[in-house]
Amino acid sequence: MTAPRPLVAGNWKMNGLKAALAELAAIRDAAAAGGAGRAETAICPPFTLVAAAVEACKGSPLAIGAQDCHPRVSGAHTGDVSAEMLRDAGASYVIVGHSERRADHGETNDIVRAKAGAALAAGLAAIVCVGETKGEREAGQLTAVVGGQVDGSLDKGFDPARIVVAYEPVWAIGTGLTPTAADVAEVHAFIRARLLALYGAKGEGVRILYGGSVKPSNAAELMAVKNVDGALVGGASLKCADFMGIAAVYR
Ligand code: 13P
Known about the structure:
This protein is α/β, with parallel strands linked by helices.
């Protein structure tokens, strides 16, 4: 199986008022001009901007995603948004199981798996996040934690063609710290082996993104690592120059 097409996705987190659509338009235009080369690009703004972002990016190569969804299609769940609603708004991706949601909202692997299943059922692709804390890494629990998250957050019955896994070490998020290329290679190879065990040869086609303090200055080194099929970018995705500086690795 040939290597999957890389994906460079931006997670805007809880950032972005309507005025930020100007930055989104700049990213859209840069992507349309070939700035991401062979990579696919996506931006996941807050819920409030999803529909407007979809509208702004119609007919462009920049895909739009969201940052969470509820496991159910509809019902009495005040404040929640379903995957079907996101699909209806025109999103094509949804991030599930981000460490900030696992920490802030107590999301377990079971909840994340249910959300990923809901995303796939609604016709979205799911970006499923995994990653260890500093304490877990230092205690030698990296593979137990990440392996448990991969196995627990994915289901054998999922269509691997619409699953993306993002490895985001919690201690690297927003800190400017990154693992060494050798460390990233080791964890991504470990995740790939788990995907092969779950999905057979189709596990080869699942994109495994690296996330955590990715910047234009370190993107080339991180993206060159075997089994790194793109990036999930936080802070640097808020500015067109930074985001496209990362995606430019694939030109
Ligand atoms: P930063 O790129 O800001 O470290 O955030 C990474 C992240 O959490 C993306 O989901």
